[in-house]
Each structure stands twice: as C-alpha cells, then as structure tokens.
Amino acid sequence: MRIIFAGTPTFAEIQLEALLTTGHEIVAVYTQPDKPAGRGQQLQMSPVKTLALSHQLPIEQPTSLKTPEALATLTSYQPDVMVVAAYGLLLPEAVLALPRFGCINVHASLLPRWRGASPIQQAILAGDKETGITLMRMDKGLDTGNSLANGIIPIAHDDTSESLHDKLAVLGAKMLFHALEEVVDSPGEQQNEAQVTHAPKIAKSAALIDWQQSAQQIERQVRAYFPWPVAYTLIHGQILRIFKAQVVKRDVNRFPAGTIIEQTPQGIIVSTAEQALLITHAQLPGKKALPMSEILKGHAALFTLSKQMGI
C-alpha cells in the first residue's frame, strides 16, 4: 500500500517506526512546522520529522490542510491510506475522502471513552483500571469514527502520563504492524454514543491542587500531570511543584484541608478532605526537583507544622 503518515510528537514517531518495518511504501510524511524551543528559541524539528529525514522520506509541513494547494499536494501522492497519530491539524472532509481506504487514526484510549486531546491524563484522573489503543476510521467529528481494532492494557497504580504514554505508544505500534492490512478496508464498528466521555485540551491552571479534594484524587492529579504541566500548590506565596506523592491514612478531621500535619524521613504529610497526602518529591521556584527530604534541609522554615498549603 501507498501510505501517507501524519504525526508530530514522540508517540507518533513510534507509530511511524512500526510502519517503516511493514514493507508498505511511505510516500509522504506530514508533520507540524518546526517551532522555536528552549531558552534560545531555536527552531526545533518534531520527532517525526527527524525520523523521516533519517529515512529520506518526503516531508510536508503545511500550516493548514484546508487550502487548494494543500489538497493538490496530498492528491499528487496518490495514497491508498493516510495513517494519523497525534498530528495536531484538523483534516477537512476533502482530505478524509482522498485516500482509497480513507484515513485511520491511532487514538490513545478505548473509544468512545476519552474522545479528545488528553485521553491519557483523563484516564488517570478518573481512576480507570485499564485503557488502550483504538484504531479508528476518521470522519468529520472529533474521534467519532468507526472503531476498527482495540488493544487493552491495565493502568498500574503508579503509572504517570509519561509511563502510560510510553506503554500505549508501543501498543499502538504493534497494532499497526499486525492489524493495518486486516482493518484497512473494514467498515468497522460504530461507537456507542451513550458511553462517550470527553478529554479536553489541558490548561496549566488545571494542575493547581485543590486541597478540598480527597488525597486519592490529588495523588491521581500528580500522576496525570507528570511530566506536564506538573501539579502545583502555593506555600507562603511560592509555587511548589509536586512530582511524586502518595496517599497515607491519617486522622485529618482535626485539621483544615491543606495543613502540614507531619514531617517524615520521606517528606511532608498534608491533610486533605479525605485522608492525607505524603509529598515525596517537589520543586521550589528556581531550584531543581528534589526529594522532599532534601528540600527540608535548606527550607525547613517553609514547611513547619500547621502551615497552610494553597496560600
């Protein structure tokens, strides 16, 4: 088959690597334009572009696929199918209809659960026990197309968005390698609209901890928002970014939520609306992320007992 691949970040790079081993012809790779990054704001290529260059594949980086020129370029590649994974551009209906077998998306959830941009984070926040990959035939809606294949993995109690992302990327690549030929001309199965949940794009503000929540929910927030945007709170007006935490049983009824109630060799224990949270790894402004025990050595006065988090 003649395949156009469209994707941008590391997740997509791993899917492209799998396609390169299938024996099909990758006739073009579409990825987001190079963007300024880092302190020097140097233009940086996407992981997908870097991989495509190493295999001398034709690369297209349009800012939109809605123009006549973009459609003409796509048409010139005469694709049998377009495989899409975390591309970042909307595909208009004219593009969806262009390949002989349409467009297939590699989506990091078990659709119709978690349609949208943040399925991995939302699965952790919701306390889901499992998640997976859906190969989906794309239509004009957002992740609404027919399901072609599903792969399922458990969510471990200590999975972060980073670790779960890596597991799902490998699963998606395996599914593309083994199942693409089988499903490419399949009509698939309609999604059950009664089971739809949504995974909206994450704003940095979503990572602000509300100590009125349970310790379990805050611990999920810490895992869901690692490595970005990282859960945070305020302590004496300073931002404290929290990288690792765990739920601990404590009698918290005597304390307002957000109160530091203990210091331990592992870190500090903070009361919540239900049980308590042990913060073990964190970061103060302008400092490195460190074990909380190391932070306490230089900043013990910030974390005295009875001090209130969130202010």
TrEMBL record:
Gene name, Swiss-Prot/TrEMBL: fmt
Domain Formyl transferase C-terminal: 201-299
CDD domains for this protein: FMT_core_Met-tRNA-FMT_N (cd08646), Met_tRNA_FMT_C (cd08704)
GO MF assignments: methionyl-tRNA formyltransferase activity
Function, in words: Attaches a formyl group to the free amino group of methionyl-tRNA(fMet). The formyl group appears to play a dual role in the initiator identity of N-formylmethionyl-tRNA by promoting its recognition by IF2 and preventing the misappropriation of this tRNA by the elongation apparatus.
Gene3D superfamilies: Formyl transferase, C-terminal domain, Formyl transferase, N-terminal domain
Full protein name: Methionyl-tRNA formyltransferase
Annotated signal sequence range: none
Catalysis performed (reactions): L-methionyl-tRNA(fMet) + (6R)-10-formyltetrahydrofolate = N-formyl-L-methionyl-tRNA(fMet) + (6S)-5,6,7,8-tetrahydrofolate + H(+)
Membrane-spanning segments: none
PROSITE patterns: GART
Binding site for (6S)-5,6,7,8-tetrahydrofolate: 109-112
Gene Ontology CC annotations of this record: cytosol
Enzyme class: transferase
Domain Formyl transferase N-terminal intervals: 1-179
HAMAP family: Formyl_trans
Record keywords: Protein biosynthesis, Transferase
Any Pfam family: Formyl_trans_C
